[in-house]
Amino acid sequence: MHGRAAGENAAFHRDARAPEKPQDRETAIEPSCIHVH
Fold it and tell me: According to the UniProt entry, which residue ranges have a biased composition of type Basic and acidic residues (predicted)?
């Protein structure tokens, strides 16, 4: 389950790093994502 979530979040992180979504970039540093790390 944890590994699966990490895979899905990995794709989300790539999208979040896109300069087109500055708001998502902040979401990438939220505790929710950090939990995956």
Answer: 11-28
Contact (Cβ atoms closer than 8 angstroms) between residue 12 and residue 30: no
Q: What is the pLDDT of residues 1-37, one digit of tens each?
A: 455 666 666 666 565 555 565 555 555 555 555 555 5
Tokens of 5: 């979530």
Question: Does an H or E element contain 13, and which?
Answer: helix 2-16
CA torsion angle 13 19 20 21 (round to 10): 50
Domain residue spans in the chain? Answer: 2-36
Long-range contacts of 16-21 (CB under 8 A, 24+ apart): none
